Amino acid sequence: MNDMDRRGFLKGTAGALAAAAMMPGARGEAAALPRPTDMRTLGKTGISCTYLGVGTGVRGSAPGITSQSMAMSGSEYVGMLEHAYRQGIRYFDMADRYGSHHYMSEAMRRSIPRDEVMLLSKVWSREPEAVRRDLERMRGELSTDRIDVVLMHCVRNGEENWPETLRGAMDVLAEAKAKGHIRAHGLSCHSLQALERVPDEPWVDVVLARINPFGVNMDGPPEAVAGILRRVRAAGKGLLGMKILGEGKPEVVAKMEESFRFAAEIGVDAMTIGFIGTAQMDEVMGRMAPSA
Q1: Residue 103 lies in a domain
Q2: CB burial class (10 A; 0-12, 13-18, 19+) of residue 14?
Q3: 142 SS3 class
Q4: Residues 158, 132, 67, 187: what is their CA dihedral angle, to the nearest 10 degrees?
Q5: pLDDT for residue 149
Q6: Beta strand pairing call for 270-274 and 238-242
Q7: How far is Cα 214 from Cα 207, in angstroms, rounded to an integer?
Q8: What is the per-residue pLDDT across 7-45, written as a single tens digit (0 to 9) for each?
Q9: Cα–Cα dist 53/37, whole Å
Q10: What is the CATH number of the domain that holds 77?
């Protein structure tokens, strides 16, 4: 969610739809909605995380600067991460470009046990040696020997042939996995054509894809994206959803239950949502939980 949209977030969350109809491209039978703190496994990786993950890079306006870090003090930012852990969240989504590693490191130093959470981060560099250097620095920033999941960040239009053009960088991440420096690798997609290559690429362990039933801030029509994501899941890859709330667009926030249902019907293993403040986090978690 971006800053301006988030200001009206809490005002716009009342009067939610009680039940979501089946959306285009959904499965023939409605999937049971997971709870935000349900533990899930990412495809065939063996890595576990909660269904809801906290995103730490919301509409970054420059490298290393995020809307979250501009809207909150460092202490507030770290406190929000600690609050997520106390609420049962065990998945934290970061990126080198977000500048959020130090916040997560401090949260772990203060109260979050490293071995109880899944840390996901992303590398922006495309050159193999740059990826190697960045990964070493990122492990240092996070004060950990091993990052659970590392993705090639924002594979977008013009990079549709990434299995060939980014192979050198991919090999560096494969080496890091073999050394135990990371547990899984993959990419975050910002292109429908790039996403289409994922199901058939053995290198991909995990993919982070933009998905909601309204087509807001997505790579293509919801039904087209959903079809590819079902193939991703059938291939045994970890499937993570993002842009579930369309970066906080009011028309999506007002119908977030439909987005949650759509993602569940596709079969995402987990999803990441960014927040500015604990009240937003608690509100979303409450609306994600299925009725008793």
Answers
A1: yes
A2: exposed
A3: coil
A4: 50
A5: 99
A6: parallel
A7: 21
A8: 344 344 433 333 333 333 333 345 469 999 999 999 999
A9: 9
A10: 3.20.20.100
Flag whether pLDDT at 198 surpasses 90. yes
Asked if residue 31 is part of any domain, the answer here is no
Of 20-24, 190-194, 284-288, the poorest mean pLDDT is in 20-24
Tell me the mean pLDDT in the region 70-91: 90
Asked whether the beta carbons of 231 and 224 are under 8 A apart, the reply is no
* CA distances, 143 to each of 66, 103, 105, 124, 139 (Å): 21, 11, 6, 20, 6
Distance CA 203, CA 180 (A): 16
Per DSSP, 61 falls in state S
For range 194-201, the mean pLDDT = 98
Q: Quote the domain boundaries for residue 281.
A: 36-286
Count CB-CB contacts under 10 A for residue 211: 25
126-130, 174-178, 285-289, range with the lowest pLDDT: 285-289
In a domain, 6, yes or no: no
In 127-180, which residue ranges form alpha helices assigned H by DSSP? 128-141, 162-165, 167-178
Give the model's pLDDT for residue 257. Answer: 95
φ, ψ for residue 190, nearest 5 deg: -130, 35
Angle between helices 128-141 and 167-178 (to 10 degrees): 40
Locus of tokens 């999506």? 252
Supply the pTM of this predicted model: 0.86
Residue 270 CA to residue 248 CA, distance in Å, equals 18
**pLDDT for the residue 156:** 95
Number of domains making up the chain: 1
Residue 218 within any structural domain of the chain = yes
